[in-house]
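ok trying this again, last paste got cut off
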Amino acid sequence: MQNYDAVIIGCGPNALVAATYLTKAGWSVGILDRNDRPGGGLRTDELIRPGFKHDVYAGFLILFALSRAYADFAPQLGERGLQMANSDKPAGVALPDGRATLITTNAEANMAEIERLCAGDSAGWGAMLGGIGAVAPQVFELLASDLTSPRAKELMDDLMVGPDGLPTPFAKNFLLTARDVLDANFKGDVWKAFLAPWVLHSGHGPDEANAGFWTAIFGLGLQMAGLPVGVGGAEAQAIALAKLITDQGGVIIPNTTASKILVENGRAVGVVTEDGEEYRAHRAVLATVNPDQLYGKLLADVPGIPAELTQQAQAFRYGGSVFFVHLALSEPPQWVDERLNAVTYTHVCDGLDGVAKNYLETNANLLPSDPVVGVGVPSLLDPSRAPEGAAVMALQQLCCPYQVKADARGEINVGDGTWSDDLKERYADRVIDTVAKSIPNLKSSILGRYILTPADLEKRNLNWTKGDWASGSHAISQSFTLRPIPGQKGHRTPIDGLFQIGAATHPGLGLAGASGLIVSQMLLNEG
């Protein structure tokens, strides 16, 4: 039996951030990690050939770069190897007809590009960013706050209700769809095509309530901060945090899976692992798990859990899956629109309607006929990712069915609907074919590929049920005060001393470690 002030289940970004703050404050912390090394969704491996370093899951560190944790610990993390590389041309879009555009970190250049695409649309860009920018400090504070706190209630009141008692402009726009926001601000379809796919990164479809809010957030973030990558790989974030934790006295225990949480006299006092080892927690247990796992497995034998909570946990909903094709390339991509050669991340899609079509087909469990694909080329910013003259590329099909009913194009035999080797190879061909229309040298430069299906993701991370790497649907009905489940008070479970963190909790997916920050501050403030 080992003893700590706090025991943390899981070692993803949220667990690492929580442990960083707690160990800095002098707490003894033990982190139980099911994997062979820390990071969760932060993992960099040579998947295809030696010298080609691929970010297996997450690849861009913008949310961490903007986080409070990075602001608080940047010097210490830098000393432990975390360096970021960024570009003034972070993102773009390529349409099937050859049209394309990109965003820069220069506001004036963006206004000029939008005006070039469609006269008058630059005013819409200014209005959209001005609206979200006016409330950005409150919004970003709320996204890193315990929503049950008095401060959060004050923020929500200020955001939603004006001095005259009427809904604020923010409140009026908060539930709009992405299509609502894009149609209201832009006449031209190319800039709409640039912005539309980003809602998929927030776990929404373009015609879902609240998707318009996230459209504006992504637009603001890209112009302000770009899309930084970790030098040497995204895992550099996890490596640096892990080193800082251990330097501050914390312990990370790999290849260890929790089987149950120990509860005595209504309080969480430790964790038992699958091999029977017991880890005692004198002050708190933090569980980086989804609610169905928490209440259905780790607390399954604990008496007194309200039946309503267990039922809500069982009904926790999962969203869209992700399909990856990692590529090792003999040379960097050469886009039809040469401006995109310098862009780190480009969506290939058929505009706003194409994004909506992909989302609807996926929800019907169909292989998308014209998949929306995110094309990441981190080696443009970080030459250490590939041998000289070569490149690495990650193709992300961000909304893909877990169980396949049929092919929307009617070309691929899906068999029994599970991700067989034949199905994944044939669908990977479609994804590559889609991108190759915009990158003529793509196919001739491919040295090898590595495919990850939704089923693969589910096997690799217990929180990615049905291949949902966002750890649960981010629909408005399962977000903010309703996340993780309506009957739980934010990150506090009904068990004293037991807290839930991770993407299944507020504020949801991302590498910023916000829920780890929230819970660590709750614990430190309470002593």
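PB: full thing came through this time. The chain has three domains: 2-59+233-316+472-526, 106-225, 320-460.
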